[in-house]
Amino acid sequence: MFSRIAGTVLGRADEGVRVEAGGLTYDVVLPPSIATKVSDSGEVTLEIYAHFALDGNAGRYTFFGFTNAIEREFFEALLSVASIGPKSAARAFSVPMGRIARAIDEGDHAFLKTLPGIGQQKARDIVAKLQGKVARFLLIQDAPQRVVPDKPPMPEFASEALAVLLQLAYRRVEAETMIAETLERAPDVRDAETLLSEIYRQRNAAGTPA
């Protein structure tokens, strides 16, 4: 199993990003504080924690991504707490690693309880298991978070058109750009079918294959 992926971000997935590497496409779950540091497009290198779970007679891998190996090690440290599973650890990783590590080191149960999915008992379990063992995680300089400009909400009919374009194998970023540009040029469009027709017409007029 691989521990790092380097490739091209195709867009956001449900809980992270979709990365194309070596001719394959992977959905990589990003904890909230990590997601703010990863762009919606372009080249990316992520450290990977792979989790395998059985579902009936089938098995499935879930890949969790981090921007550096220390973040992954901290995630693995959280998993060493018996009451914390991968999904719980990912949700709890909602603020920078250094802040969580400081709360553990100081035995700050009140702060730990504010993390998603961490109640009183899990906060106690985390401190009992990891207090005094997180010094290396306190020293990291947290990278600045990616500033995401506010976008106006996409109209419902535009979301329907986006879903169609994604099914037609357009990349999310490309599809969202086409929709935004088309609505800017044709602001009177009010339904998905007309929007898709207008996208096709404009691309055809520009000589771009649909």
Could you please describe the fold and organization of this structure?
- With 210 residues, this protein is α+β, with helices and mostly antiparallel strands.
- It folds into three domains: 4-66, Beta Barrel (OB fold (Dihydrolipoamide Acetyltransferase, E2P)), CATH 2.40.50.140; 70-138, DNA polymerase, domain 1 (Orthogonal Bundle), CATH 1.10.150.20; 156-203.
- It is 43% helix and 21% strand.
- The chain contains ten helices and five strands.
- It has helices at 32-35, 69-79, 86-92, 97-106, 109-112, 120-130, 135-138, 156-167, 172-185, 192-205; strands at 4-12, 16-21, 24-29, 42-55, 58-66.
- A five-stranded mixed beta barrel has the order 1-2-3-5-4.
- A hairpin with a 2-residue loop joins strand 4 and strand 5.
- Helix 8 crosses helix 9 (172-185), helix 8 crosses helix 10 (192-205) and helix 9 (172-185) packs across helix 10.
- The longest helix has 14 residues, at 172-185.
- It is elongated.
- The two termini are 38 Å apart.
- The mean pLDDT is 87.
CATH architecture of the largest domain: Orthogonal Bundle
Helical/strand content category: alpha+beta
Poorly predicted runs:
none
Main pleated-sheet profile? 5 strands, mixed, barrel
What is the strand content? 15-25%
Counted by DSSP, the helix tally is 10
Instruction: Output the helix-strand order.
Output: EEEHEEHHHHHHHHH
